Amino acid sequence: MKEELKRRRKTNKRWLLLPAALLIAALAGGGWYYSHQENFIERKFERAQGLLIEKNYAEAAHLLQTLTRQHPDFNRADEALFRLGEVQHLYLKKDQDALLTFLLVEKNYPDSPFNLRAQRLAADIYMDRLEDYGRAVIAYQKLLDQGVAEGDQLQYRIGEAYFRLNNFEQARIEWESLLKLFPDSSLVPEAGYRIAVSWSLEGEYEQAAEEFERVYATWPEHPYGLEARFGLASLLEEQEQLVAALEILQELRGHYPRPEVLEQRIIQVEERIEKKQDAI
Length: 280
Hints:
The chain is mainly alpha-helical. About 80% of the residues lie in helices and about 0% in strands. It contains 13 helices and no strands. Helix 8 (about 170-180) runs antiparallel to helix 9. The longest helix has about 50 residues, at about 1-55. The chain is elongated and about 90 Å long.
């Protein structure tokens, strides 16, 4: 009887140990599977990169799309999704698809180093491809509020978006903000020139002339300083101040970056002066 009890106890212990052994085996097997799966996904991602190098953009996009849909938790899924958007945008010219992809990067991977880059490209698609200037303003302003490095560029683009919407007053406000907030930006001369143009388009010739003169006086050798001088001559011509316009145009010879345009305008103004004199 005692022998039977001992045998049963040993058997029970073995049964008790079996679940633990199975659990350890399952964990070990699961770790192997996870590691193998990660390596498999990584190889697919590397294959997609290889296809990009080979300029096989359609196949690369298909592979990246499959990868990001099937493995959204892959440790490089954010990069894979961003690269998909780049391919759609730059090579396949599928702007709506690229926009959606970049917005998904922002939504699904807010802490990703590719997040801000995706937001910027989405804003540029709104602006340059879809001509949705209202949404472009919102997208650029959102980036600007996050303190990104290229703040002067974003501020300029916001002004440009309002300009394309024919909201010249708001465009000036945005460009004037650029002058104040980023005085050392390389975009400052261009912003000053665009402010003058916006005044001119609204028929505010006095303000336009003052701004053209200020830009030229500040940057006399800069391309936009010279454009401002040319713009002032055009403004004077519109106001029938032909002699003053001609003098400025002639002064620009040897300096203006588009000499053929300059010479054509000089001839045009000279002909107008002649016609006026003949009429007298």
